[in-house]
Design brief:
The protein is an alpha+beta fold and 112 residues long. It contains 4 helices and 6 strands. The strands form 2 sheets. A 4-stranded mixed sheet has the order 1-4-5-2. The protein is elongated.
Length: 112
């Protein structure tokens, strides 16, 4: 892999963008390689790095299909369903608990 140019933070030339900047414009990298990178120095740690892509070579974001929309809705519903009580918690259940707060802390819920 050839070395890519490195620019300091906020000093990248026009025509280059990060993935997030591309997405905000309704674009995606589209399989292109990284064109350059930004580095932001930090104290006591290595620099923050952001990869840049060419805006001209970027492709439009693919539209959401009905099947993909349904699959995402089903996956998000599964993340909200408590495996203990089988109820929709109304929020994404934290993996650290593995169940809704009502099931994880039953004594505290009765006292309140």
């Amino acid at each position: 892999m050839a070395a890519v140019p490195v620019y300091r933070w906020h000093l990248a030339p026009d025509g280059l963008a990060t993935r997030r900047q591309l997405r905000a414009r309704g674009l995606r990298p589209g399989g292109q390689d990284v064109v350059a990178q930004l580095e932001r120095p930090r104290r006591r740690r290595g620099p923050l790095v952001a990869y840049l892509y060419s805006i001209e070579q970027a492709k439009p974001v693919r539209p959401m299909t009905p099947a993909k929309r349904a699959a995402l809705a089903k996956a998000n519903a599964a993340r909200r369903t408590c495996p203990e009580c089988q109820r929709d918690a109304g929020y994404v259940i934290p993996p650290s608990l593995g169940m809704c707060a009502t099931c994880a802390f039953p004594d505290e819920q009765r006292a309140a």
